[in-house]
């Protein structure tokens, strides 16, 4: 089984996610004052230091996760560095507009769904008589 995990990056990603999920559950259960990710990182570091976990079991999976994370975070950071005005009051205004428009869309959608639900239920009652 160990050699299968060493060869398959997807299984290694699953193992890393398993450590993360287990540490999140432990932190939540014991109400620890730090995040599960930090706790899981400490557990993995401890297991690596005591040689209960070999680096080959998680190396390729961790590299795969880190490579994909860079794709998501680098463009956003670079655009912030390029446009300093988004960090100040302009950024807050844009964030406010985005949140307000999202709230408006959600409210209109909920109102239309509620109206259609009541319209169909009233229509069904009148046709059953």
Automatic annotation (TrEMBL):
Keyword Lyase: no
N-terminal signal peptide: none
Membrane-traversing stretches: 34-50, 62-81, 87-117
Compartment(s) of residence: Cell membrane
Main localisation: membrane
Pfam families reported for this sequence: LrgA (PF03788)
Keywords tagged on the record: Cell membrane, Membrane, Transmembrane, Transmembrane helix
Membrane topology per record: Multi-pass membrane protein
InterPro entries membership: LrgA/CidA (IPR005538)
Protein known as: CidA/LrgA family protein
Native species: Legionella qingyii
């Amino acid at each position: 089984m160990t050699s299968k995990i060493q060869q398959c990056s997807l299984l290694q990603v699953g193992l890393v996610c398993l450590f993360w999920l287990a540490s999140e559950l432990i932190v939540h259960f014991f109400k620890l004052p730090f995040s599960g990710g930090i706790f899981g990182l400490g557990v993995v570091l401890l297991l690596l230091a005591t040689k209960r976990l070999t680096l080959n079991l998680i190396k390729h999976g961790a590299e795969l996760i880190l490579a994909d994370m860079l794709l998501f975070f680098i463009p956003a950071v670079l655009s912030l560095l390029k446009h300093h005005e988004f960090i100040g009051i302009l950024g807050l205004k844009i964030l406010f507009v985005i949140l307000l428009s999202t709230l408006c869309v959600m409210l209109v959608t909920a109102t239309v769904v509620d109206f259609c639900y009541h319209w169909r239920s009233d229509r069904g009652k009148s046709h059953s008589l």
